[in-house]
Write a structure and sequence with these properties.
The structure is a homodimer. By secondary structure, chain A is of the alpha+beta class. Chain A has 2 domains: 2-168, 2-Layer Sandwich (D-amino Acid Aminotransferase, Chain A, domain 1); 176-340, D-amino Acid Aminotransferase, Chain A, domain 2. Chain A has helices at 64-68, 91-104, 112-125, 198-213, 259-271, 282-291, 328-340, and strands at 9-10, 35-42, 45-46, 50-53, 57-59, 71-73, 76-80, 86-89, 137-146, 159-168, 176-180, 218-222, 229-233, 237-242, 245-248, 275-277, 280-281, 294-301, 305-314, 317-320, 351-353. The radius of gyration of chain A is 21 Å and the shape is globular. Chain A starts with 8 loop residues before the first strand and ends with a strand. Strand 5 (57-59) of chain A pairs antiparallel with strand 5 (57-59) of chain B. Bound molecules: pyridoxal-5'-phosphate (2 copies). Residues 75, 196, 232, 235-237, 256, 258-261, 300-302 of chain B line the site of one pyridoxal-5'-phosphate. One pyridoxal-5'-phosphate (PLP) is lined by residues 75, 196, 232, 235-237, 256, 258-261, 300-302 of chain A.
């Protein structure tokens, strides 16, 4: 798609809510900034995005979002360095993935320049909202949903694209305890698991709640056919270290192709860490946990960054991960966040200055 | 749950839109009546439902429905007989299925009396909207969605339950041409296919559009593991007649347990028709189509009623169904609609007078 500079119309909020926010005590995703990007799809095309005050959305009760789950989203972050410069991490990857999700969900693709230019304009306007407290960042939520009306089960004729910002603290506090799930599944072969589609998340809530009730933080999904191989977690791809080899499941139409995952694979390559992208059997994990070759497990995702796993549960048995010196999780976390916060050279070309 | 008579508060619309509606030319689900039921879940419980004028819904951009697809629905119809009496067909089955869907999607279950009493009250108020043109009926859409806010991927703390009505004509016009799908899937083992969850429908739009582009009306889904067995269509369960035996796939966690399907199985039993609920291989269908033992195929669902299939496509070959005298589809359609419109004895106790 053609990329051009646009004039994004800005309607400023009359007052700012920023004074009411305690930036030292941010939870995840429950405080929103003063403005948002809104862009409507009508009569067969996307209108030019505008920046408007953050405000409620009004929809007919028959709007298809309420009935048929036609919605997709992205999750990104903006970072501020010591010079007050603003940085994004691989934003075009999010833009392209949003459009991959769009296609699978029969949602019209958003022009890349509409996405990028409106995002940058909103970031410039809201720059004071980007937290500088360590571990905090500005969480960015681009999303598209079906705003067109009607009870016929078919794609809507109107959509809304919105970008909203939430200054946020850590997604998880502390190490994560996960349960390997054998009964419920996240996605099907030939399904929509590779898309960041709304329904993929709602479907995880109930099984995750059952795991939380047993004392775990998250579920690790297995393939829906045999339940023998681990796939990914609710909002993170999963990495395993056996001896010195880093393992992760291959992407497929059931697994989200995570940008953090992709970055870790590149860093591992440049660090000379042996990597295997292949199916990981639960039985292999348990064997490795028992014989001591399982050194680390961690989740990787934009919201959770790198989240070390302390324990995994399987069939009512808990397996604790050891404390491993020179941890890969710590190495990747440092390397990625140093690039994100402009604390180190960016040899990969991932950082974008806003 | 306890059932009690409630006093449902009614706020009447100032004017009615009914004069603008051409009841002889109704499409499916794009005209809505003057009022709707609204019921909010807040602070851990469902408030008493109210009837209010049909009006737009206002939500924060962070409302979880926009992000995580936490939504479920039902599809029912109301029928009017020659005496202006109003009838529902197995409404408690819809109410119970809505709560089955609710549980799987981590949505709080709606009290059965809230559902039934508010539905009946709304039907009485909107009785003039129930079409009497043959083939038309009042389509009823109960639905629940996550109205609570926040970007954290976890269940919402607030929900809205709404019942809206749409006087509607036929869902399909004429016989249906279907494509048996081998690549894309509707649902996973251990997934949410048995729930009437929004995301199940959005996931079908793209593959269905590909089938429509090839000249078909609908997709018949196969199991996501082998793609060898037929499951159901987008909004219908599928029945096959081989010689005089009626076949349908068993329900599972991948298939919606349709109320029309359930009713057909009962009628078949009472008519002495041999029935087999078992896996149906695509190869078996093709063999039967070739040797002439495949007599009928039809879809069954509330919206589509009984929809005879004229042709099924598989791997670029079309197989035409023959014209079969004493068709089962015609028998079931007559039997079910005669009960629905109060034209015949209801030996099954399915009809409920409003
Ligand atoms: C299901 C799922 N897997 C993995 C990820 C990690 O992807 P990324 O690293 O691009 O954030 C996410 C979330 O972002 C996700 O929702
Ligand atoms: C996926 C699916 N299968 C089958 C059906 C048929 O179910 P019922 O007969 O209860 O309407 C429906 C719709 O209602 C449906 O959405």
């Amino acid at each position: 798609m053609e990329t051009k500079t646009m004039n994004i119309k800005v309607e400023k909020a009359k007052t700012s809510k920023i004074g009411q926010v305690d930036f030292n005590n941010l939870a995840f995703g429950n405080v929103f900034t003063d403005h948002m990007v809104v862009c409507n799809y009508k009569n067969g095309s996307w209108e030019v995005p505008e920046i408007v005050p953050y405000h409620p959305i009004t929809l007919d009760p028959s709007a298809k979002i309420f009935h048929y789950g036609q919605s997709i989203f992205e999750g990104m972050k903006a970072y501020k360095d010591g010079n007050d410069d603003i940085w994004l991490f691989r934003p075009m990857d999010n833009c392209k993935r949003l459009n991959i999700s769009a296609k699978r969900m029969a949602i019209p693709e958003i022009p890349e320049d509409y996405f990028m230019e409106s995002l940058k304009a909103l970031l410039k306007l809201e720059k004071d909202w980007i937290p500088q407290t360590p571990g905090s960042s500005l969480y960015i939520r681009p999303f598209i949903f079906a705003s067109g009306n009607g009870f016929h089960a078919s794609p809507a004729d109107e959509y809304m694209f919105i970008i909203a910002f939430a200054p946020s603290g850590a997604y998880f506090s502390g190490k994560v305890k996960v349960l390997i799930e054998e009964k419920y599944s996240r996605s099907a072969n030939g399904g929509v698991g590779f898309a960041k589609a709304g329904g993929n998340y709602a479907g995880q809530f109930y099984p995750t709640q059952l795991a939380v009730d047993k004392g775990y933080n998250q579920v690790i999904w297995t393939d829906d056919n045999t339940h023998e191989y681990i796939e990914e977690a609710g909002a993170m791809n999963i990495f395993v270290r056996i001896n010195d080899t880093l393992l992760t499941a291959p992407t497929s139409d059931r697994i989200l192709d995570g940008i953090t995952r992709r970055s870790i694979l590149k860093i591992a390559e440049s660090e000379g860490i042996p990597v295997e992208e292949r199916k990981i059997a639960v039985s292999e994990l348990i064997k490795a946990a028992k014989d001591g070759s399982l050194k680390e497990m961690f989740g990787a995702g934009t919201a959770a960054v790198i989240s070390p796993i302390s324990t995994f549960g399987f069939r009512d048995v808990d397996y604790d991960l050891p404390e491993t010196p020179n941890s890969y999780a710590a190495l990747f976390k440092k390397c990625i966040t140093d690039i994100q916060y402009n604390r180190a050279e960016d040899n990969f070309g991932w950082r974008l200055k806003v």
